[in-house]
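During the no-cost extension, the postdoctoral fellow (Dr. R.K.) reprocessed legacy sequence entries with the updated structure-token encoder. One reprocessed record is reproduced below for audit purposes.
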Amino acid sequence: MSPTHTSLHHPMTALVLTAGGARGAYQAGVLKRISELPSLANRPAPFPIITGASAGAINGAAVAAHHDNFRHAAQLLVKLWSNLQASDVYRTDSAAMARNAGRLALDFTLGGLTGAGRVQSLVDSTPLFGFLGRHLQLDGIRRAVREGGLYAFGVTATGYHSGRAFTFIEGKDGHPLWNKSRRVALRAEMTLPHILASAAIPIVFPPVELSTGNGNAYFGDGAMRLITPLSPAIRLGAERLLAIGVRCQESADSLLRSELSSGEDFISDLKRPPLSQICGTLMNAIFLDHLDADLDHLKRMNAFVGAYQKLAASVPALPSEPDHEPMRQVTPLVISPSADIAIIAKTLEHRMPRSVRYLMDGLGTPDAQSADLSSFLLFDSAFTRELIQLGYRDAAQRIDEIEAFLREPSKPEERSPQESQVA
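Re-encoded structure tokens follow.
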């Protein structure tokens, strides 16, 4: 490793950035506050392994590309997200929207007679290529790998033909690869299409063509099939994970209680959900629900591995390693929003382009706490700046815990339950 990786560096610490569309601005705020730690001033990012999917792939690429100066990388992300407009992500002009709507209408009404397939997505995301090209200098990833500070950077996209989660990895020679029933890892020289494919929200954005070695295939958002978002970093060798989610757990628990309870404190007769609320729930299933489940799974596996190691030490006849790839304990620390991002989005959804608002209005008005669809698609600086500030505050409240986590390796069983729980 690079000799500059001292103080706040542990060789097997990974940064895991999850999916979430416009919610990805929250991660920029968290990273900004972490980068302000005095021990990280003018130093590389303290993460030799970085993995991401969807918006997390964009954020991860920025950190990996500027790995030699973590504070600069965080500042770049804040600049990117705080100035974001819908027109930077997809074409918002009336002509483009009308043309796409006309094609969609033809596919639905006459597709059976004249052939369908005129529309690949709801919007034309061509502007996003130019926007990311102006902000992300991906050759910095190769430099960071070559100079030794970055062991591996991986982004995950979903293959539209196989339905598998493909993790494309640029890293040191000899880094792990895998080919499982639902997950594949491939070596790659990271390009903008890799990032765009990982961030291509299904239905909303078109598929992206990528090379798979012997040929090309089409890919979409990495969160669709990556039901274990911590897995790529663990498979790459991480022993410690700093993961940044984009869902408020307290809000999710509150919604669950309202469905289970008939008490006076909750709504006892919930209204039939409009299509917008159903779409928001679908987006949650794709983007938000996996991290919590994977964290629970990791804790169970840590307990299992710890119990097995103790048993193996006390029973000489027991094999020291199970008959499969070696397992180890992995220490997680997860930072997630302390406030409901859906409610923030509800107060600002009027800032969406008029054509998109028209479509959203046609899908019906969801409950404020269930306005998740807007929160994924609200690419607007007023919204993203709110999320950056939220992420910054959340990280500031836990900065001592984060600093200790980055500085002092500890075993999972040595951390209190609160330290490993989602905020």
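The radius of gyration is 22 Å. The beta strands are 13-17, 49-53, 152-159, 165-171, 183-187, 208-211, 216-220, 240-244, 331-335. The remaining legacy entries will be reprocessed before the final report is submitted.
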